[in-house]
Amino acid sequence: MGLGDKIQNAAEGAMGKGKETVGNATNNEHLAAEGQKDQVKADAKKVGENVKDEFKN
Length: 57
Description:
Blueprint: H1 3-25, H2 29-56
Helix pairs in contact: 1-2
C-alpha cells in the first residue's frame, strides 16, 4: 500500500467518524449513517490494499 493510499484511507475514515459524531450529536440519523458508511468503505479499502501487499511479497 502506498503512503498516499494510507493517508487517503485514514482521512476518509476520520471524516466518516466526524460525520457520525456530528450526526449523533444533532440527532441526524442520515448523517450518522453516512459517516458509518464512509468508515466501512475506508476499512474495506485498507483491507484490499493489505491483500494486494501480501500478494506482492
